[in-house]
Amino acid sequence: MASFQRFIRYAYRLPLIAWHAVIDLPIAVFLMLPIFHGVKVGHTSLEAWAVGWWSRGMMRIFGLRVKSIGVQSPVATLFVANHVSWLDIIALHGTRLMGFVAKQEINGWPVVGWMARRGQTIFHKRGSQDSLGGVLETMVRRLRTGRSVGAFPEGGTRNGTELGPFHARIFFAAVEAPAPVQPVAIQYGKDGASQSRIAFQKGESFGSNLWRLIGEPACDVEVHYLEPIQPEAFNGRSGIADTARARIAAALGLS
What we know:
There is one protein chain. The protein is α/β, with parallel strands linked by helices and 255 residues long. It has one domain (63-252). It is 43% helix and 16% strand. The protein contains nine helices and nine strands. The chain has a seven-stranded mixed sheet with strand order 3-9-8-4-7-5-6, with helices on both faces. α1 packs antiparallel against α2 and α2 (46-61) crosses α3. The longest helix has 30 residues, at 2-31. The chain is globular and about 55 Å long. The N and C termini lie far apart (37 Å).
């Protein structure tokens, strides 16, 4: 029965993904062109609305219903979140446009890489100090010009049930800008019941992970915006990193 249900999900989700990539993606990209700069949809820029529209649509195709919980910081902010899957960026963009720091490999992924570039992603080559220095400078510049940035301080995905240590260096941008830091807890399924199922598992390629997720059952995705942190209230980046991790861990029920 389970394999039959999985087959049915593939049967209707694969055509929807193709439609979303071939039809909806060009529409979103068109709405993000410079000629529409300054156009608003309510209180949101058309560019941010287009990214959110496309992102929420992609998540729905996977059967993932995104819910934003809590109050988002209204100013340019460094948003930091736990990292479960490559879907995290799409889930967060479904609630707010923020230029993410992501591994360089994503730039070459089909559809996801294209949308990441349009969503102001800052690509980082892991293990390269030169790359990291350039990333931090870009983050500071964006925050100072009123644009928010998102990052995953763990530095990579885990099995979905663990929260790794937060690397303090990424918080340099918030201290230098200066700009507030808002921790964000991403939870797949009720009380995180689907975290392991959604997680980008060790040894999986993007292709195999994508194929597996297309066939997985639907679930809710809760994006919890937690209490912001003001960098000037802490003596150094380590204190900010520890506080951000503690607030996310508490929201996820982890240690």
